[in-house]
Amino acid sequence: MAERKIPLGPTYDEMLYPDTIDKNIRQKALRALKEDELDPINLFNITWKDENNQVRKIVLPKALTGVDANIIVMLGNGFPSGSHKVGPAYSTLIEGCVDGEINPGVHTILGPSTGNFGIGVSYICRLMGYKAVVIMPDNMSRERYERIRKYGAELELTPGSESDVILTLEKTHEMMKNPKNKTLAQFELLPNYRFHRYVTGNSAIEAVKGIGNGRIACFTSAPGSAGTIAAGDEIKKAFPEAKVAALEPYECSTLATGGVGQHRIEGIGDKMCTLIHNVLNTDFVVLINDDDTIKGLKVIHDGIEILKKMGVKEEDALYMRNLFGPSGICNILGAIKMAKYLRLGPDDNVVTIATDGFDRYHSVVEDLERRYLEVKDFVLERWARDIFLRASVDNIFDFRRKEAKERLFLQKEKDWLKFGYTKEYLDSMKDMSFWDREYEKIFEYNKKIMELR
């Protein structure tokens, strides 16, 4: 193994339970997270847990949400590179490494993405010694491109915006004809599912301990690759009554209505039902107006006095400033809508995710300020009340019935048969045993990583 020079990082177990990592390695990793983000020891910081082994989260102030239920947001900005997308990027690469399919110095890694996964791929490849090419639309925030280049990856840009990810997939499949190129295909490879079902799902279950009734009534997640929503599979195992809601831009309602369109929520709403989306456990699809997520981001980041006026404590308002991006605000709005729709009370918990923080969206807020004539405090106050406190239960679609699921299966066929997947393979995904078998592979990979390390 030594001649392959692969820096082997954590197992799935160690990503979920970082307290099981050798104490010297754990302490070195925590120091590196603050001092040198390009030190490969940062692989051991791929976890939802902080230095005290507690899930990084915030329980949103009810003065902001306007609902009785507790809305708990797991925070992805504490991962190395600033987003939880390093988790599935690492998981996909390490599985290929230990299987002997991907070798440094031989293979170039392709990362199809609309942003955060591309950042994660470029970061992980930098740490693990691989050349990386990130394939993404040419209309994403400039901060994303800058960070990818900072980590040393090349960019291959395809026409269009957030919802034109199908073009990035077509470009990726074209580049895969060269045997030297190996793809970390987040939309179709199941390490993404495994990471989120095991690591994110079980972290969510831990996150609600001591809050309300200690159970999860609802989990909301806006699918991009539909990796994160796999956490719902594990949540439902622990809390069978839990509901899972997939969120989409109103402007690109592919799952809800088969609609397509351009939108501004980077990282989600990709005009498809991804291959790794287990639609068996998607109970609801909720539409969120894209501009509401950008306005909501502006309110949280710049409306400290407005939030205080609404009853949010100053220290909470200041703490929240940099915790979210547009997709995080989308997830929060979906959580508020579902809390109202399900008529949840003060003992009930809704869990959601903030994929990243504000640091990669300055240009998005600048664009908002150009599009609106005024963004003074009285405008922010109106936005805060309209977007958060007056969030409606409109555009919530119930997908629990068999015929609703069938529509999603047909959408998956439309999207994936053209990429070489067979109908038999797609049909096998209609049974939970498919997903459970894929999930169980975690324990094989734990063993392989430990043996090679």
From TrEMBL:
Tell me which residues make up the Tryptophan synthase beta chain-like PALP domain: 71-356
Protein name per UniProt = Cysteine synthase
Q: Which Gene3D superfamilies match?
A: 3.40.50.1100
Top-level taxon of the source organism: Bacteria
Q: List, alphabetically, the SUPFAM superfamilies matched.
A: Tryptophan synthase beta subunit-like PLP-dependent enzymes
KW Mitochondrion (keyword) present:
no
Sorted UniProt keywords: Pyridoxal phosphate
Q: Which cofactor does it need?
A: pyridoxal 5'-phosphate
A biological process from GO? alpha-amino acid metabolic process
| A Pfam family per the record | PALP
